[in-house]
Design brief:
The model has no long low-confidence stretch (mean pLDDT 90). β2 and β3 (107-113) form a beta hairpin. It contains five helices and four strands. α2 crosses α3. By secondary structure, the protein is an alpha+beta fold. The protein folds into two domains: 6-47, Arc Repressor Mutant, subunit A; 60-141, 2-Layer Sandwich (Alpha-Beta Plaits), CATH 3.30.70. It has a four-stranded antiparallel sheet.
Length: 151
C-alpha cells in the first residue's frame, strides 16, 4: 500500500472527514475531473484502503450515558476457544468493540450503558457469564478528548 500518492492521501483525508462527499466535489477540490476522482476512489476501495462508510452516532444523545472499557482476562481452566468467547461477546449489543490485545488482558471491550445501574446489570448478567471469562478490570470513560480520525 506504499504506492499511494499525495492525491490518494488527500482523497483519504477528505473522505475520513465526510464519507458522503461526491466524487465531483472531491475532484474540484483536488484539481481532478469527476471521473478521475471516482476512479481513484474505486481503486482505493479495491486495494483495501477504504473499507466502507461509517455513521457516527452520539451515544449520550441516544440515552447511553456511560461508557466503560473492560480489560478481560480469559480463565486458564476449561480451555475455551477464542472463537467461542468472541462469538458470545459480540452477541451482546451493549458491547461496541471487541479487541484481542497483547498485555495484561486478553481482550479490551468498549461497553455502553444507560447508566451505572444498567452497566452493572450488563456486567453481571451478560459479560460475567461468558464462556471462559476470567478476571475483569473496568475503567469508566470520563471524557473523550480525541476521537479516531485520519491516519
Amino acid at each position: 500500500m506504499n504506492d499511494l500518492d499525495a492525491t490518494d492521501r488527500a482523497i483519504l483525508r477528505a473522505l475520513s472527514r465526510d464519507a458522503t462527499r461526491p466524487a465531483a466535489d472531491l475532484g474540484r477540490k483536488l484539481g481532478l475531473s469527476q471521473p478521475a476522482a471516482w476512479r481513484r476512489i474505486r481503486r482505493l476501495r479495491e486495494i483495501g484502503a477504504l473499507k466502507g462508510r461509517r455513521l457516527d452516532l452520539d451515544a449520550a444523545a441516544l440515552g447511553f450515558g456511560v461508557t466503560v472499557f473492560l480489560g478481560v482476562k480469559l480463565a486458564n481452566r476449561g480451555r475455551v476457544s477464542l472463537e467461542d468467547f468472541e462469538r458470545a461477546v459480540c452477541a451482546i449489543r451493549e458491547v461496541q468493540t471487541v479487541e484481542h490485545v497483547l498485555g495484561l488482558h486478553d481482550y479490551r471491550l468498549r461497553v455502553v450503558a444507560r447508566d451505572l445501574e444498567d452497566f452493572e446489570r450488563v456486567l453481571r448478567r451478560r459479560i460475567m457469564t461468558l464462556p471462559g471469562i476470567g478476571p475483569v478490570e473496568a475503567n469508566v470513560l470520563l471524557s473523550e478528548e480525541r476521537l479516531p480520525g485520519p491516519l
